[in-house]
Task: inverse folding
C-alpha cells in the first residue's frame, strides 16, 4: 500500500520492471582516462551505442541529447551523456571525442577493443555488425538505436526508442534525479 500523497513513478520511456543492476562498462576516453559506469553513482547516465560515420541515427540522437541537456538546465550537471562507439577500427578515442564535442563539449565519447565492446553489447542484449559497402569508408555498421538510462544507484531504469520526444526524456530524467 502506498502512503498518502505517494504514487509510483510514471515514465515516458520503457521502464525496466524491476530495475536491473547496470552491466559493468569500462571504456577508454580521449584524454587517456578510463570511463567506468560504476564510478557514475549519484548521476543519471544516458548510454548510446553508435559510431562517428553514421549518416543519420547517431547525429540525430546526439542532437536530441543536446536539447535534453538544455531542457534540464542546472540539473544537467548531474547527468552523464555517454556515446559508446561500436566501430573501434575508425573511432579511436580522440576522433570519437571530437565527434561528440561537436554536439556538446560535455558529452563523453568512449570505446574499447572489439572483444570488450562485444562483451559490453552482449551484457546489454544488443548487437552491432559491420556491413561492407561501396561508400567512402568501405563499410557501415548496423547498431542499436535506443538509449539506455541508468539511475543514480547504478540500475538500468529506462530505454528510449529512437525519436523519443526530448521533453518526455527531460521529464523522466528529472524524476530519476529526484530519486524516483
Result:
Amino acid at each position: 500500500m502506498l502512503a498518502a500523497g505517494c504514487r509510483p513513478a510514471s515514465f515516458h520511456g520503457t521502464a525496466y520492471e524491476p530495475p536491473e543492476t547496470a552491466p559493468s562498462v569500462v571504456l577508454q576516453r580521449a584524454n587517456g582516462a578510463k570511463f567506468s559506469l560504476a564510478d557514475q553513482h549519484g548521476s543519471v547516465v544516458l548510454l548510446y551505442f553508435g559510431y562517428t560515420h553514421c549518416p543519420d541515427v547517431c547525429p540525430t540522437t546526439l542532437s536530441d541529447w543536446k536539447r535534453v541537456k538544455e531542457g534540464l538546465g542546472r540539473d544537467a550537471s548531474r547527468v552523464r551523456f555517454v556515446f559508446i562507439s561500436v566501430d573501434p577500427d575508425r573511432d579511436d578515442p580522440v576522433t570519437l571525442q571530437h565527434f561528440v564535442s561537436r554536439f556538446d563539449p560535455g558529452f563523453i565519447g568512449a570505446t574499447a577493443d572489439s572483444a570488450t565492446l562485444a562483451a559490453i553489447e552482449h551484457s546489454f542484449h544488443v548487437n552491432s555488425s559491420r556491413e561492407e559497402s561501396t561508400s567512402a569508408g568501405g563499410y557501415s555498421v548496423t547498431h542499436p538505436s535506443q538509449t539506455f538510462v541508468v539511475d543514480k544507484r547504478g540500475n538500468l531504469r529506462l530505454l528510449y526508442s529512437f525519436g523519443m520526444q526530448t521533453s518526455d526524456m527531460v521529464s523522466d530524467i528529472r524524476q530519476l534525479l529526484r530519486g524516483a
